[in-house]
Target: Heme A synthase
Amino acid sequence: MQKWIKTFANLSAIGMFLILAMGALVTKTEAGRGCGDDWPLCNGKFIPAYTISSFIEYSHRLVVGIVTVILIITLYLVFRYVKRSDARWFISGTVLMTLIQALMGAAAVVWPQSSIVLALHFGLSLLAFAFSLLLSLVFTSYGDYSRSQRILPGFKTMAWFSVVYCYVVVYLGAFVRHTVSSGGCVGWPLCNGEVVPELSGATGIVFIHRIAAVLLFICLLFLYLQAKRHYSSSDRLVTGSRWALIFVLLQIVSGAVVTWSIGHDVAYLFAGMVHAMIVAGLFGFLCYICVLTIYDRKAF
Model:
């Protein structure tokens, strides 16, 4: 039975990552209205007429439906056969975030939402993926949170600040996409040829996101240096913070590529997808570090 539980936990994480990626594709291709105002049908049909936008949107809905079934099975298996409280919390969080996300997606189709609300949709997908990833890790060696050395209070505070601030930066990035503001800053690292451009309209939105991303890099650099200073090189805090730093660097580079590819549709779409997927890895590592701080010297 443990083999089946692990399999479904892994499928849940893979499925949530796929939902996140496909959601980014829907946004980038502006296919959210590909099925009109109908939900769960697509333009009044169970099998929609073939158009690119309807195919993308309906495929996204189909994947969400399949993954939801996987999550329900995983939820049953975990509560029935797994005694660890963290596994139950993780699967519950995954299911809850997925349901809220699905309801918000349906509401956005029937009743058009503001960009502020639509940006939250990606944030919920990210939380659902993080919960599913943590659940998957429970059934690996990384699910053993026992430590020989206490985690310093200052590091715990920094870790939690980093994950919350990362979520804010992600939300700003989603807001940039949903307000179609990517073209507000032409060029990188300068914005429209200026160090500090006029902070209005799309330019202001993109520039604020860029500054927030730089501050996130500084924050994670400090987190890694603190981990490296106080813990052994093999410690999971050091490994996790190192990978978080690597991912935030990749996120910044991919953001630059998104800017450089504006005007080239295929390259812009691909770069935007990669940009969205990298942040999943970044947020996942930060969430894992925070879990380590919660279970510091706690017994199951």
User: Anything to note?
Assistant: The chain has two domains: 1-144, 146-300.
